[in-house]
Known about the structure:
Blueprint: H1 5-13, H2 17-39, H3 42-58, H4 69-82, H5 95-104, H6 116-133, H7 137-148, H8 153-160, H9 164-182, H10 201-206, H11 238-243, H12 252-264
Helix pairs in contact: 1-2, 2-3, 2-4, 3-4, 3-12, 4-8, 5-9, 7-9, 8-9
GO molecular function: DNA binding; sigma factor activity
Domain RNA polymerase sigma-70 region: 25-87
Family: Belongs to the sigma-70 factor family. ECF subfamily.
Amino acid sequence: MTHPDADLVARAVAGNQDALAEVLRRVQDPVYRLALRMTGRPVDAEDAAQEILIRVMTRLASFRGEAALVTWAYRIAVNHLVNLRRHRPQEQLTFDSYRQDLLDGLSAPTYTGPDSDLLAEEIRLLCTQALLRCLDRPGRATYVLGEVLGLSGQEAAWVLEISPSAYRKRLERARSQVRAALRGRCGLLDATAPCRCGKRVNYAIGKGRIGPDVPMLATHPTRGTAQAATDLSHLRNVGELLRAHPAYAAPESRTNAILALIRSGRYQALLPDNSRESS
């Protein structure tokens, strides 16, 4: 059965400007949020999402309606993100180093400066982003699609281009790794665990992970209903903690530039000759 999005895509492929704009509007935030969860930082997510959105918009003629438009865009996005070559250095993370860092961060004195609640929220958001980066990229994509973005098993398997049974095995392995990493550490999940976001602010500032003036995620522009509406005092599992992020909005300047380029036919200017995807 052809998905209802097929009519919109057909009009966009035929050159209808309103349809082109609507396609971009529908996919821009989902693609950006996936990129942010995969890369960990807005600056990297913006670059990746820009390239992904150009690929989505220039491959619309290949859309066959076998999945929803956003799900189809996720397949293009995951293929790009799993093979992405980093152009900015980033701290290498393992589950062992992550667990040790949660304890090391408690040795710093408690932060007593301004915006303490905001900075504690920044710690929570950065900490869960770092946890995702401990997974290898295929495992991270699997976990984000199924546990964070809430795709069905059938949809996620289609995006990843693996069988549903292989997807279930990969997801359970990732879930097990993530649960083990926070076991006995995170005070949001276990009242007896030692780690508290507010206790880690000075440590994170000292490590250069956050700046007290410009929190990277806690003040990020959002659109729609915030995922962070979950009552953090009643979290039931790690999945809820990982889902409890704001509804991050893709940068309008980037998406407006993409739409202008698509309309002008000059989109190749944003696609480097040497793709950032590895072979």
